[in-house]
Amino acid sequence: MLDLRPNCECCDRDLAPDSAEARICSFECTFCADCATSRFGGRCPNCGGELVRRPIRPAAALVRSPASAERYVKAHPACA
Ligand SMILES: [Zn+2]
Ligand SMILES: [Zn+2]
User: What separation in Å is there between the alpha carbon of 64 and the centre of ligand 1?
Assistant: First the structure.
């Protein structure tokens, strides 16, 4: 199941499960649209893969399969 992380790994901005601003790579590294575009040029700084818009999990599905509550932040050089 896709790990819906609650924040941007770079700037720590909140990313709700229904946010259209969330970007994610194939390893579930999660960023906000601003960081993904302006800091990383659409490439994940961890794996070099594509960052694409994270699909929204419908509210009804979130009841049974809740989003992750675990915040993850990593200091990338571009995040400074
Ligand atoms: Zn960010
Ligand atoms: Zn990645």
Answer: 28
